[in-house]
Amino acid sequence: MRKVYADTVVIGGGAAGLAAAIKLKDLSVNKVILVDDRERLGGILPQCIHTGFGVHYSKRDLTGPEFAEELSSFVLDRGVDVFLNSYALELRYVDYYEKSVIVASRKGLIDVRTRTVIVATGARERTVYEIGIFGDRPAGVYTAGMVQALMDLYGVMPGKEVVIVGSGDVGLIVARRLAMQGATVKAVIEVKPWPGGLIRNIVQCLEDFGIPLLLSHAVRRIVGHERVERVIVTKVDDKLSPIPNTEFEIKCDTVVIAAGLKPEVQLLERAGALIDPVTGGPVVNEYLETSLPGVFVAGNALVINDLVDTVAEQGETAAEGAVLFMNDKLIAKYYLRVICGSNVRFIVPQVLMGLKEEITLYGRVIMPMRRAVIRIPELMLSMQQAMITPAEIFKVNISERKISKVVKLHKLTINVLESR
Amino acid sequence: MIIIGAGVIGASIARVLSKYENLEIHLVEMEPDAGWGASRANTAIIHGGYDDDPQKYPMRARLCVRGAKLWRRWVRELDIPANFSGILVLAFTEEEIEELHKLRERGLKNGVPGLRILQDRDVLQTLEPNLNDNVRAALWAPVGGVINSIEAVIALVENAVDNGVMTHFNTRVLSVKTSCSEVVGVETSRGFIEADVVINAAGLYADEISKSAGADEFTIRPRIGEYYIFDEDAGPKVTRVLFPVPTPVTKGVAVIKTTEGNLMIGPTARDLSPSEKEEWGTSEKGLEVVWKEARRLVKALPPLNKAIKTFAGLRPEPPHGDFILKSYEEPYGFINAAGMRSPGLTSAPAVAYEVVRIMKEELGIELEEKHQWNPFRRGIKRFSKATNRERAELIQEDPDYGVIVCKHRLVTKAEVIEAMKRIRSIGAEITVRGIKYRTWAGMGRCQGAFCILQLIRLIAEFEGIALWSVKLTKRGSEVGIGDIYTLV
């Protein structure tokens, strides 16, 4: 197998990987290889034809394809070695100084030896099998991403009468896309008592198109032989369990599963990185370094984000970390666990090591709170925030100086409480 | 002659009969491709042969043991993934230990080699490290194991076609025609096919075929079994097939490692009405039972959120429990190979040889062996199962081996194209499901969310058809309803 050497290998050419590669070049890293299995750069961006991309990063409101175009041109201008149609089969942590990435393409297999790796492999969609829907598995059951790709990359209309499972932003945007194309979206069904997506999207994607949103409801069964014929829906209680005798059916020919994403981390798992069971991504420190020294992660492979700007920001942070690592300046001063306290589902990074002066914690709450206060008892810190919902990642910025004073506590607890 | 049904029974019969010179064999199948009935969703276990009472079920008892032996040769000749790791039947109580002894006795009567009862903790733990601590004894049937059952059917049909068998897919047999008490052919959805011998291997629909021929009237009940299958990286797995002590109705929920490396648990056994032969849906109750039962056998199962798929299979249950494998004086020329419930897969090769015997001895047909009959078939070279060195060689031979289509199962474009060529070569219709069954694309943790569209693109290109019209399974399962610009 041919060996190739690099300073940093970026795996994945979506927003996180592109932003990381750009940053690496801006920080004067010599040899950066970016590997992507698609035929063009941009990851999932080219199929997201709505706007809202790059508001912070590019200071403009772009569509997905436009933002992909802009990032790709930056990458190419800066002399990143881009390997398209190339798939990273295997990531191996050889030792502190060397990692191996086996890449397959039509030209053969190559073994890229590198000091640092940034994994930006994005996410996969949760499937119909992961959300407790029983019954048949006929044609007409798609994930939201498949519908986007079918419609806007390949020009295929998936169906006429649609039920959407999940009210996250992706589900809402796909509902609108289908309605715009003349489909009847019979309902968006959400198991939780509140919508998963942003209020803005509820208004613009559902209300403007007269699409009903059924909260505290779940699709229990799909019925149909060759093609979906109907779904059986039930009401659920506050524990999300079905309420008996509340079943009804909705006739439809298409079911779209928009039940969220999961970090795509098979490479990292197999390489032996520690995975956080809640985020589904790896456990990382302030520079998004995994438990494997010199292996970094960014974007949806780290944690499911709701804004592409956050994804790009993470790409840049990982790139900065990789540069410090290569200069032997990534020196851990301590090891502090970040604990999810009251109403907090997860926090990233999960570990603080005193690597960075200004730290950004990304978190998601369990329940929405109107007047929230973020409390970190170890720091005796309270921050008011107008509204925190599970639909939006909340950020907490802390300066390292404060944390360094409480390292003896070995932990930092993040709580989100209702302010009185 | 005509064989109705290209499942594992029909395909086995086709392969064995393709050895003979003086037969014109037509394999007729209502589905677009081979093995889409009971053969596509089952445990894929090659059974130990201890469970079938030779008094009550003489056919099952005899053919299971013989079939299991034949499979060992067939998997080599036909390059079918197989793993004969053995079976452990687990006893938790004194009564169940007694039951194990009865099973052993029965197995000995049936001629099963290698059976023994193990009660030693350390021996049991060594054989199966994931064994539940409450297990007190086990019947060890070292000849059992698992094969890839859908690949087996595909391999059998490929080999049969290679040896001159003609196939008719998407062709439903409407009735068997007789004249003067002799079979003259079958009426199908695509016209009449003439034949003097008709073999009924129609699985779930064998009762309708038999009735139309004027042979035995019986009812085949679909017996549904539900399963969980876990991510290939998820553990703990098992090294042997684990079973509880069987009941008169079922062998129970097994814990299995498939030939593709996934942990699988199932099945339940619930009888549906004879009219529910298209009801392949899973149920909450059934899956709960599977989980609870499987959990009993092992120390631990992978977490439920590592289950990547649930599915159900239908077994064709005959009225009295035994296979219906026989010829008739009237109508002469009609042979039933029906009611192939468990251990139907295990028995399939033996069923085929039994059909040869029936043709020779009961129908008095003289069969001449061909001078040149090819017993071999090679599978599609799988990138995922190759070493990195072999992978590099594969890409050098065919650069399409360097294009990954399915990330989680590491299936390449070369394999997908080869699968499409093979589907065409056996006269079947190219569908997404057909490619999945041949390459294992879309069978990983994302269940095709990434690759199904790639498969659809490749099919559309290969067939020269519109993307939206590509079928996932059969007619009516097209991926879309039209192109967006033509609809607007």
Can you offer a commentary on this structure?
The complex is a heterodimer of chains A (420) and B (488). In chain A, 20% of the residues lie in helices and 35% in strands. With 420 residues, chain A is an alpha/beta fold. In chain A, a hairpin with an 8-residue loop joins strand 3 (51-53) and strand 4 (62-63). Chain A is globular, with a radius of gyration of 22 Å. In chain B, the strands form six sheets. Chain B has a six-stranded mixed beta sheet with strand order 9-2-1-13-21-20, with helices on both faces. In chain B, strands 14, 16, 17, 18 and 19 form a five-stranded antiparallel beta sheet that branches. Chain B has a four-stranded mixed beta sheet with strand order 6-7-5-15. In chain B, a hairpin with a 2-residue loop joins strand 11 and strand 12. Chain B starts with a strand and ends with a helix. Chains A and B meet through strand 6, strand 7, strand 10, helix 3 and strand 12 of A and strand 19, helix 9, helix 12, strand 24 and helix 13 of B. Strand 12 (156-157) of chain A pairs antiparallel with strand 24 (482-483) of chain B, so a sheet runs across the interface.
Outline the biggest β-sheet of chain A: 7 strands, mixed
Low-confidence stretches of chain A: none
The pLDDT mean of chain A sits at 96
* Morphology call of chain A: globular
Characterize the largest beta sheet of chain B: strand count, sense, and whether it forms a barrel. 6 strands, mixed
Distance between the termini of chain B: 51 Å
CA gyration radius of chain B, whole angstroms = 23 Å
The side-by-side strand order for the widest beta sheet of chain B comes to: 9-2-1-13-21-20
What distance lies between the first and last C-alpha atoms of chain A, to the nearest angstrom? 64 Å
User: With helices defined by DSSP (H or I, 4 residues minimum), what is the helix count of chain B?
Assistant: 13
Structural class of chain A: alpha/beta
Low-confidence segments of chain B? none
Oligomer: heterodimer
